[in-house]
Amino acid sequence: MTRTALGVISVLAASTLLLAGCGGTDEAADNADSVTVDTLKGEVEVPAGAKNVVVLNSPAADAAAGMGVTPVAVASTKDQIMPWQKGVTDDVADDSLINAEYAPNLEKIAEYEPDVIFAAPWNIADDSTYEQLSDIAPVIIPDTESANPDWDEMTEQVGEALGKSDEAEKLIDTTKDKLEAVGADLGVDGKSYQLISPRAEGIYFGNAAPLELFGLKPGQHQTPEEINKFTLSAENLDELDADYLFVWAMDDDGKKQVVDNPSYDSLPSVKNGTAAFIDAEFATAVNAASPASLDWLVTDSGIEDMLKK
């Protein structure tokens, strides 16, 4: 599924303690020369007030823009821009920042003279690549080995690096409150979900953890250990027994793989009208989530109609 990047962050404890009585975390960052961010590669020092931001993973770009810092470049093409990014980061999309294997183009990135670079783990193949990228600017990678780190931890990390922790917290709280309110209105608390993507080698389960903000709970095979790894065979289709089933079929063959299965019509979600075929935009919104994508999920994806059934 789509690539994503998220992580856990922290400010220097001493600075926070000294300035706690004088203002919030953003004020502390403003009064320091740099902030320290926990990343997958250890602690990284980022210059205070970083403005020239280069982003190799789009969720971090969404988060930065939501805090008022539009990146100078985002590794994407205009064709890959999602609806929630239009008018925000589409003018800074630059697919030359990474190659087909997602590795960074060091020369191109350096041309933007970044203050900080946000990257995903899969952008950094080895320590040599990381060191060369760090020679250009501090590199912020989510502090997790997970392919699908939590969107709120990613937002916190971006906010910390940009000296905008207060704004990050507000974005997170607003997003959570919005989805929780919709879920409460629809009465879906405790109902289960599964999100699948049929492929030639079997049916994969995709990350859709943000759906839990509506009050839904993960169904079978929606565990971190199984997402994007476990494949369900055709003869076990009856294990798709969640209350809500979201199917991301990338082509007609993928769709036929599911609907032509003899067990399909007997699935609880199909019988109840709560099985939905979703598009790449919906899948990206939950798989590579950000505050902006989750706001779009509520307002423009049609998910309320899906959950009303």
Tell me what the structure shows:
There is one protein chain. The chain is an alpha/beta fold. Helices cover 34% and strands 15% of the residues. The protein has 12 helices and 12 strands. Strands 7, 8, 9, 10, 11 and 12 form a 6-stranded mixed beta sheet that branches. Helix 3 crosses helix 6, helix 6 runs antiparallel to helix 7 and helix 7 packs parallel to helix 11. The N terminus is likely disordered.
Provide the succession of SSEs. Answer: HHEEEHEHEHEHHEEEEEHHEHHH
Major beta sheet, specifics? 6 strands, mixed
Mean pLDDT: 90
**Oligomer category:** single chain
- Please tell me how large the radius of gyration is: 20 Å
Which descriptor suits the 3D outline?
globular
**How large is the count of helical segments?**
12
Helicity, as a percent range: 25-40%
| Total strands | 12
Strand content: 5-15%
Report the structural category.
alpha/beta
Low-confidence stretches: 1-25
Distance between the termini: 27 Å
Question: Which helices and strands, and how do they pair?
Answer:
Blueprint lengths: L12 H7 L5 H6 L3 E6 L2 E6 L5 E3 L2 H9 L6 E2 L31 H6 L4 E3 L8 H8 L4 E2 L10 H11 L3 H22 L5 E8 L2 E4 L11 E2 L12 E2 L11 E4 L4 H8 L8 H4 L3 E3 L2 H8 L3 H10 L2 H6 L1
Parallel strand pairs: 3-4, 3-5, 5-6, 7-9, 7-11, 11-12
Antiparallel strand pairs: 1-2, 7-8, 8-10
Helix pairs in contact: 3-6, 6-7, 7-11, 10-11
